[in-house]
Write a structure and sequence with these properties.
Elements: H1 13-25, H2 32-45, E1 49-53, H3 56-67, E2 73-77, H4 82-90, E3 94-98, H5 109-114, E4 120-123, H6 135-145, E5 148-152, E6 160-161, E7 164-165, E8 172-176, E9 189-193, H7 196-205, E10 210-212, E11 215-216, H8 227-238, H9 240-258, E12 264-266, E13 273-274, E14 280-284, H10 286-289, H11 293-302, H12 319-325, H13 331-339, E15 340-343, H14 351-366
Parallel strand pairs: 2-3, 2-4, 4-5, 5-8
Antiparallel strand pairs: 1-9, 6-7, 6-13, 8-9, 10-11, 12-14, 14-15
Helix pairs in contact: 1-8, 2-8, 3-4, 3-7, 9-14
Length: 373
């Protein structure tokens, strides 16, 4: 058996050719390919506007800079990638870290509501690992407290909630096209909105605060995507549905194959959710399973199966945030971070590969060391 990787990073010949054609044209910077990618992506997800940018981090930064004032607070789940919180701070706001639901691993809205103050301006729920957060509950919370919602969909290309693509919701939806994502272009991002004012402001901020060439009304960044990346993205968008079918089939095989294994608990799919399965993550109970997360990862590696830990600590445990905001205890986040393991689910796997992964974990359980009954 060959190695089974945690992600599949390959361009098709068609995608390579699209990039080559742009390189040959000499039109490398943001241009017609980016504009076409924006139109096609907005149409795909059902958003009024879509804006290409340099990375998923840049897409979050553009969204936050559009409305945050110094000292404004944003509710952020602690169990997520660094950028969800760091870009709040970089926009002169304050991320307020919230605990997570023990089953979905996503923001605990009851905990979040307890942390709302008169300075709370927004909430940034994360569609973690491609599983949609309960969008109805988030919208209700936001409406009660007059909050702006910045949906972090960096891992959620093609994810839907109640049969509606997550990219179509207000107020901002942020995507990443980093190589580990379901859609990738190298480095790149997209931010969607249905608000024309937000769109125009982000468009200006993306290019040094320009309203027209050499006419700058605010400070901004160079957060532009290149046409080379956009050309790749357009081709990948065309085969996104095909890739998602494969990921969902692999996830179904893993779920069935591990259903009766004690000590293994996969991420719970949100009611009404159609996940994109960016990652397939398990929480390992070492007492029931017979070994801990790290030992299981080592045993899988011996069998040629890669795995990963997303994430080994919460944002509230990151040294930079501890220094800025002081210590904080979030018990569910901390418990999940110690026990979570991602196993292969990507569209480069065939169904037989997914069965091999499940059987390898079952074999590790059979050989595990458990206390005598």
């Amino acid at each position: 058996m060959g190695n089974i990787n945690i992600s599949e990073v390959r361009l098709t010949e068609e995608e390579i050719q699209a990039a080559v054609e742009v390189l040959r044209s000499g039109n490398l910077r943001q241009g017609g390919q980016c504009e076409a990618f924006e139109r096609e992506f907005a149409l795909k997800v059902g958003s009024r506007y879509a804006l290409t940018c340099a990375s998923g981090t840049a897409s979050l930064h553009l969204a936050y800079m559009t409305f945050l004032e110094p000292g404004d607070e944003v509710l952020v789940p602690s169990f997520t990638f660094m950028a969800t919180g760091s870009m709040v701070a970089m926009s002169r706001g304050k991320p307020v870290f919230c605990d997570i639901d023990p089953d979905t691993f996503m923001i605990d809205l009851d905990d979040a509501e307890k942390r709302i103050t008169e300075r709370t301006r927004a909430i940034s729920p994360v569609h973690l690992f491609g599983n949609p957060v309960d969008m109805g509950a988030v919208k209700d919370l936001a409406a009660r407290h007059n909050l702006i919602v910045v949906w972090d969909a960096a891992q959620a290309h093609g994810t839907a909630w109640n049969k509606r693509d997550v990219g179509s919701f207000d107020h901002f939806v942020s995507y990443s096209f980093y190589p580990s994502k379901n859609m990738f272009v190298g480095e790149g991002g997209m931010v969607c909105t249905n608000n024309e004012e937000y769109y125009e402001k982000m468009r200006s901020l993306r290019s040094h605060g320009e309203m027209e060439r050499y006419y700058h009304t605010s400070l901004g960044h160079n957060y532009r995507m290149t046409d080379v990346e956009a050309a790749i993205g357009r081709k990948q968008l065309g085969r996104l549905d095909e890739m998602l079918v494969k990921r969902r089939l692999n996830a179904e095989i893993l779920t069935r194959g591990l259903a009766d294994v004690p000590g293994i608990r996969p991420q719970k799919v949100t009611s009404g959710g159609i996940p994109a399965w960016h990652q397939y993550c398990l929480v390992i109970d070492p007492d029931e399973f017979g070994c801990n997360r790290d030992t299981l990862a080592d045993r899988l590696k011996e069998k040629g199966i890669a795995s990963g830990v997303h994430y080994p600590r919460g944002l509230h445990q990151q040294p930079v945030f501890e220094k800025l905001y002081g210590p904080l205890k979030l018990p569910v986040t901390e418990a999940i971070a110690e026990k979570i393991l991602a196993i292969p689910v990507h569209h480069g796997l065939g169904p037989d590969d997914a069965r091999i992964v499940a059987e390898a974990i079952r074999e590790c359980y059979r050989k595990g060391i458990r206390p005598a009954a």
